[in-house]
Every structure is written in C-alpha cells, then in structure tokens.
C-alpha cells in the first residue's frame, strides 16, 4: 500500500510539473491574420450604425434645399447624403442602436413624409456628438 501511495504521489507530481511547463505555440499564419485584423480595426473610424432617411429623390436641387432647411431647423443633428444612381438620399443622425434612431424618426415624422430608418456606416465622431 505504501508503494502504491508513493507511486501515486510520483505520478501526481509529474502531472503538476508537466502542467507548469505547458507551452502554446501559435501558428504563424494565425498570428499574421490577427495582426492584419488588428491593424485594419485600429485605422477604421466608421462603424455600423443607424440613420433616419428623410428624402430619396432624383432631383439634386431638392436635396440641397431640404438639406439647408434641415440644418437651419436642427443645427445640432448631423446630416449626411449619399448618391446611389439615380437617387440622392438625405439621412439625419448617427446612432449606435436602432432604438436610439427610432426616437429621432418619431420626432422628424411630424415634419417629413415617409421617413424611415436605414442601417449605415457612421463616423465614430458623429456618434459622440449625438450624445
């Protein structure tokens, strides 16, 4: 019995010392991909967010008029437009969540017909300005 106990103690000590010396070596390709991913994310200043679309029109002049009027009424709300031929789309706000954008949509739907929420890449600085 004493020999069995000694053998068990020796095996346990060997297992413990083996655990202390456990070394993980990462695959060089995995390290390379992780470094690329990290570099891209550090330089990226846009994130997935939400905006309220006010207008979609083929008339550039209408877009510019609506943009000027909106900026005069709501100077603190960021405004952005995109051109996906043939449409110019005017979008307000920059929100991280849909729920946050919904509040602005409700407010603007009293003045603008057909407003709706759109997913968009937003600049992180715009997000900070909205809060």
Regions with little confidence, pLDDT below 50 for 5+ residues: none
Strand count, sense and barrel status of the largest sheet are: 4 strands, antiparallel
Question: How much helix, percentage-wise, in residues?
Answer: 40-55%
The pLDDT mean sits at 82
CATH architectural label of the largest domain: 2-Layer Sandwich
Please tell me how large the radius of gyration is: 29 Å
> What pattern of helices and strands is seen along the backbone?
HHEHEEHEH
Question: In what range is the share of β-strand residues?
Answer: 25-35%
Would you give the CATH topology of the largest domain? Answer: Alpha-Beta Plaits
How many beta-strand runs? 4
Q: How many angstroms does the end-to-end distance come to?
A: 72 Å
Give the CATH H-level superfamily of the largest domain: Sporulation related repeat
Instruction: Name the CATH class of the largest domain.
Output: Alpha Beta
Number of helices: 5
How would you describe the shape?
A: elongated
Q: Strand order across the biggest sheet?
A: 2-3-1-4
Provide the structure class: alpha+beta
Number of separate domains: 2
